[in-house]
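Priority: low. Protein: Protein kinase. Input follows.
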Amino acid sequence: MSSVDAYRQFDPLAGSVLDGRYRVDTLIATGGMSAVYRGLDLRLDRPVALKVMESRYAGDTQFLTRFQREARAVARLKNPGVVAVYDQGIDGQHPFLVMELVEGGTLRELLRERGPMPPHAVAAVLSPLLGGLAVAHRAGLVHRDVKPENVLISDDGDVKIADFGLVRAVADAKITSTSVILGTAAYLSPEQVSTGDAGPRSDVYAVGVLAFELLTGATPFTGDTTLAVAYQRMDNDVPAPSTLIGGVPAQFDELVLTATARDPADRYADAQDMGDELEAIVEELRLPAFRVPAPRNSATHASAALYDSQGRQQATTEHLAPPPVGQVPRQPTRELPRDDRQPVEPEYSGVAGQFAGIDVDEFHWARQRAKRVLLFWVVAVLTLTGLIAAGAWTLGTNIGALI
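Result:
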């Protein structure tokens, strides 16, 4: 999912309210299947992330059924490593998910900013990621699309996996999407390429490829097309990370090679199994604790800055702009005693424009300068008067001696 400059074009969804409850604010990112927005739950006054699906999915009953089922299943997952799902629905032509808003950025954005990571940082990313996947695997859920774009890092250093169930919902609906293939090709397991089947070991394979990328800064397979990238893993093993970059411990080589074995039976059974092995490696190597930094230049941060600037602009200009024709502006309710309901005088916080061809601001500053000049002269006169009085008193006191 690529970041989007919200200033490029007007978004018709911005400012709308989904299902009478969720206000759509600023765009965070967009992809082939959906767009993610910063939003607000008006009922609970809670910031949320809104994943709004494309309208082509609205008319597919099978997709909507699977979409609702997957959303309910993911909403039951309780783990710090999983982005919480709060609600789901459809508004007009747009199915949508309401999720926890993670202020920070994606692992993809962090990789672009900082490049390969040392082993202790890789462990800090993989540990909560595997913890979240382990909870899902125990509940019978498979992610199917583990990749850096779906790993979120908060400003507090929390690592969370997002987008459970969407790939399965799309696949079951028989709706093709080249963007799904494009975003997943580098991390697909061999069985997903050959038969489309996916299980916990498929997620393990994707995490193994992700670990390889974190250590080396690149994915193990490349090609001219997404299909070429996908099919390379059918006949080739993922190489050990240490063959591409120095300083990778042998234990991490073994972790990656086991997770990415072409035969699913040779991999870790699930995320819990791989997580246990990672924990043992951390203890063996005595790796230091590490707080994963959020990317600085992230789409989420950009949307937050835009949202804040829009809020300040609205607060500054809201009372000056005339309401659209036929629309009564909303005003806060003012409660008065029953016997004290007097007409309210209009309030003016400022005046714009010119007077006699001169900017009004010039009058304001001229008044300020005049006040300062007047104050200066008053102080000067008082000081001079004080000096004269002091001189007269001194002269009167000593006049006898002078005579």
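The mean pLDDT is 80. The CA atoms of residues 177 and 280 lie 40 Å apart.
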